[in-house]
Design a protein that fits this description.
Elements (H helix, E strand, L loop, with lengths): L13 H10 L4 H7 L2 H25 L14 H15 L2 H18 L11 H15 L2 H12 L15 H14 L7 H19 L22 H8 L6 H16 L25 H15 L2 H17 L11 H15 L2 H23 L16 H10 L14
Helix pairs in contact: 1-2, 2-15, 3-4, 3-15, 3-16, 4-5, 4-16, 5-6, 6-7, 6-8, 8-9, 8-10, 10-12, 12-13, 12-14, 13-14, 14-15
Bound molecules: zinc ion (ZN).
The site of zinc ion has 5 residues, from loops.
Family: Belongs to the LanC-like protein family.
Protein name: LanC-like protein GCR2
Keywords: Metal-binding, Zinc
């Protein structure tokens, strides 16, 4: 188990850092941790703006601006999403222009794609395209992308999970409604999809102990990418009927009751393997869902469960990968989410600690072969694209959002 992550030897609290400072000789990471937050976030910002350039060169420049993998997860749309974040920091119009060019190429590359989600499919291309067009003040382009979005058809045999299924489409609808305006996608249209998701969940649960259950490729997953955590997370942004709300709460309570003794969450129903502490599988993705439940329902049990799951991420979350799907960057967003929810500055310290670990060590550890650079090393979800996004989010931590997942 221990070889999946680095032991977390950083001080547990900001007070402990202060004590540390006066008693021991300091390595570069400890020095970073003892700096005031603004000094650290300035350092991360400068690093991010340089890294962003590398990501653009590697994923767009060297390919001659041709798109093979258009997805947000591992492909060019992820670079566009990162550039949009950079634009929000720099307000540099060239960034927005480049971003629009990349999405245009993704639009061509995804024209015949059957995938309908934000993270892996065409909904992501059309939704991000529309939002960029709005920022660029291009009404015609905005209408064009919205028309294309509305042409997306959901096959009847679609799964329900986030990466390839119904909630992955619904998330794109919420993204549009947030950034373009309420009712850009009508409540009625979204409700029809929600009803199908709830119906499918009740059918598979079959009056079992958990009110809703789903399957993807024959497995009943629990995590954010393919399972219950991701499905419940998106459903909580929808207008639900009272009985649907009760089923979502009941599903979350079932998960909390059946977590591992360590506090981590199984990757699928009945699994006894307490290994993965990723956004995609395990406590980090579940923490984000529980934090959202605490915010939406205002119930203490969800807040407590989110806090408990966050402890697992602190202890076992320094993964030997950098990305946001199953790497340290994704796990850092857990602390940013808990900070936003509770206002407790110790969570901001923990986010700072994980981000500083990445800044100080990641590239060296990758070069030494002690950390995996990701199969797609510059991508948003698996590579340093995600780390770069995190560093930009550290500038305004109360506004930070896990990419393509937290609204
Ligand atoms: Zn993953």
């Amino acid at each position: 188990m221990a070889d999946r992550f680095f032991p977390n030897e950083m001080p547990e609290t900001s007070l402990a850092v202060a004590a540390h400072e006066t008693t021991t000789a300091q390595d570069s990471l400890t020095k970073l941790l003892s700096l005031p937050y603004t000094a650290v976030s300035d350092t991360l910002k400068n690093s991010a703006l340089a890294l962003k350039q590398t990501v653009v060169n590697e994923t767009w420049g060297v390919s001659g601006k041709r798109v093979q993998d258009y997805t947000l997860y591992t492909g060019a749309l992820g670079t566009a999403y990162l550039l949009f974040k950079a634009y929000q920091v720099t307000k540099n119009d060239n960034e927005l222009k480049l971003c629009c060019d990349i999405v245009k190429a993704c639009d061509s590359a995804s024209r015949d794609s059957g995938c309908v989600t934000f993270i892996c499919g065409r909904a992501g291309v059309c939704a991000l395209g529309a939002v960029l067009a709005k920022h660029a003040g291009d009404e015609r382009l905005l209408d064009l992308y919205l028309t294309k979005f509305k042409e997306i058809k959901l096959p009847s045999d679609l799964p329900n999970e986030l990466l390839y299924g119904r909630v992955g489409f619904l998330w794109a609808c919420s993204f549009l409604n947030k950034h373009i305006g309420k009712d850009t996608i009508s409540t009625a249209q979204m409700r029809a999809v929600v009803d199908e998701i709830i119906k499918a969940g009740r059918r598979l649960a079959n009056r079992g102990r958990c009110p809703l259950m789903y399957e993807w490729h024959g497995k009943k997953y629990w995590g954010a990418a393919h399972g219950l955590a991701g499905i419940m997370h998106v459903l909580m942004d929808m207008e639900l009927k009272p009985d649907q709300v009760e089923d979502v709460k009941g599903t979350l309570r079932y998960m909390i009751k059946n977590r591992f003794p360590s506090g981590n969450y199984p990757s699928s129903e009945g699994s006894e393997s307490d290994r993965l502490v990723h956004w995609c599988h395990g406590a980090p993705g579940v923490t984000l869902t529980l934090a959202k439940a605490a915010e939406v329902f205002g119930e203490k049990e969800f807040l407590q469960a989110a806090v408990d799951a966050g402890e697992v991420v602190w202890k076992r979350g320094l993964l030997k990968r950098v990305g946001i799907c199953h790497g340290i960057s994704g796990n850092t967003y857990v602390f940013l989410s808990l900070y936003r929810l509770t206002g407790n500055v110790e969570y901001l310290y923990r986010a700072k600690a994980f981000a500083c670990f990445l800044y100080d060590r990641a590239q060296k550890l990758i070069a030494e072969g002690k950390m995996h650079g990701g199969d797609r090393p510059y991508s948003l979800f698996e590579g340093i694209g995600g780390m770069t996004h995190l560093f930009l989010d550290m500038i305004e931590p109360s506004e930070a959002r896990f990419p393509a997942y937290e609204l």
